[in-house]
Write a structure and sequence with these properties.
Number of strands of chain A: 9
Largest sheet of chain A: 7 strands, mixed
Oligomer: heterodimer
Low-confidence stretches of chain A: none
Shape of chain B: globular
Strand content of chain A: 15-25%
Largest sheet of chain B: 2 strands, antiparallel
Helix content of chain B: 55-70%
Structural class of chain B: mainly alpha
Mean pLDDT of chain B: 91
Shape of chain A: globular
Structural class of chain A: alpha/beta
Strand order of the largest sheet of chain B: 1-2
Number of helices of chain B: 6
Chain lengths: 290, 142
């Protein structure tokens, strides 16, 4: 097993699990996993288990977060096995990933299985002051979601945040990358970059363009558009990102830093917001039209 | 397309009078007025306005009367009224048509304007005629 020079800033969900799962299957591990456990419920925003002793509170908050963040992937697996079966087969073939990875992404196994030391920290989002001390000098940190990285963390000494964005930079920045790429360009893109204070405007490490995957229309019978949208983010988008991460990091050894990025011309790209459901419907027809 | 543009321009007269108070170049009412005029191009300044205001609407799901110079932050607390909301939907649809590419590839700015038009349309009850024009435009640009 090779160790990548990365600290994974683990925010529970399919994206973070896909990164770690694919690393494991390729014989890789990060040097450290920093598991961010939310002090607040991800859905309600209310403080979790304030009356509990700290270790119990940590465990309880972790479980709540895990249940909440994996809710839709699990629900889709349970209620629409044909849809998920078709999607995972197509994605696995396209990205050369083991089929069992998809189950692992939603199974919520202990993070220790990924072979790296795990540190758990109870936080109130990425702005929690405790993170400054923990992350200083951490080297390259893989961002896996959980909000916007605040400026004071981006400026820390000896730290840079690596992010994988589901869009070809600089052309597709912002939200719903898979959807906007498909609508505007007819293909999907993916980029690895170092975060700066803008939206996907940091130095680009690598970009790739890929043909849009198409899933079976038969498998989508009786599945509404909102669920198909969630299915894309549960089983397609995370693997697109994880595959790019490993492409970026494949040749690295623990004694080498990740590559330097190329600055972007900020004015040359387009930043998209969440796609309206009526436009999304058009894209879903393309993705699920085979 | 020119017939659609003509029909969309008619919504300019529906801007609420209360939204015309304190009218300046960064008021939504004046932007609507400029976008629904007879010109065939969108000026660079109005492109910036569409970008900033579009982002603000898409994220906040509300439309204020006035914005800062970058069209990012609302200035003052009042939101626009129904007539202005309908006119603003028409204005973003006009922008969508004006910003189209001459090539086969859709224009990102045109699709972004359409996305914002749909979001504004969700905030106000649109007349059926405008709903029909919106569907026609979706068919036209996609």
């Amino acid at each position: 097993v090779r160790t990548l020079p990365l600290t994974v800033l683990f925010h529970e969900g399919p994206i973070a699990r896909a990164y770690l799962g694919l690393m494991l299957h390729r014989g890789l591990r990060p040097k450290r996993i920093l598991h961010l456990v939310g002090r607040r419920h991800p859905g309600t925003g209310k403080a979790v288990g304030r009356w509990l002793p700290r270790p119990v509170r940590m465990l309880y908050a972790q479980q709540l977060q895990e249940i909440s963040m994996s809710y839709w992937p699990r629900q889709l697996r349970k209620d629409y096995p044909n849809l998920v079966g078709n999607m995972t087969r197509v994605v696995a073939a396209a990205f050369d990933t083991p089929p069992e990875l998809f189950e692992e992404m939603t199974a919520a196994g202990p993070l220790e299985r990924y072979g790296a030391p795990v540190q758990r920290v109870l936080v109130d989002g990425l702005r929690d002051p405790v993170l400054k001390g923990i992350l200083t000098g951490a080297g390259t940190i893989l961002f896996t979601g959980g909000g916007t990285v605040p400026k004071h963390l981006l400026c820390l000494d000896g730290v840079r945040f690596l992010h994988v964005h589901p869009g070809e930079l600089p052309y597709v920045r912002g939200s719903d990358g898979v959807f906007w790429s498909t609508l505007v360009y007819g293909h999907v893109g993916v980029s690895s970059l170092y975060l700066d204070s803008g939206i996907d405007t940091g130095d680009i490490i690598a970009t790739a363009r890929r043909a849009s995957l198409q899933f079976s229309q038969k498998a989508t019978d009786n599945v509404d558009a909102a669920l198909l949208y969630r299915a894309v983010f549960s089983f397609y988008d995370p693997i697109l990102r994880a595959h790019m991460l490993l492409t970026t990091a494949a040749d690295l050894h623990e004694d080498r830093m990740l590559p330097v990025g190329e600055p972007q011309i900020v004015e040359s790209g387009t930043t998209y917001q969440y796609m309206h459901p009526r436009l999304r419907q058009r894209v879903l027809r393309t993705i699920f039209g085979a | 397309v020119s017939a659609i543009l003509q029909r969309l321009r008619e919504y300019k007269s529906g801007i609420d009078k209360t939204d015309l108070v304190d009218d300046d170049e960064h008021s939504v009412a004046s932007l609507i007025g400029r976008l629904l005029d007879d010109s065939v191009v969108v000026t660079p300044a109005d492109r910036l306005a569409l970008e900033g205001l579009g982002r603000s609407i898409d994220v906040r799901k509300r439309v204020s009367r006035n914005y800062d110079a970058a069209w990012r932050k609302p200035v003052g607390g009042s939101d626009i009224g129904l007539g202005s909301g309908i006119a603003l939907t028409a204005a973003f649809l006009v922008a969508c048509l004006k910003l189209r590419n001459s090539t086969a590839t859709p224009s990102p700015q045109s699709l972004k304007a359409l996305n914002t038009a749909l979001n504004v349309g969700d905030l106000f009850t649109l007349p059926p005629q405008l709903e029909a024009l919106m569907s026609q435009i979706i068919g036209e640009v996609l």
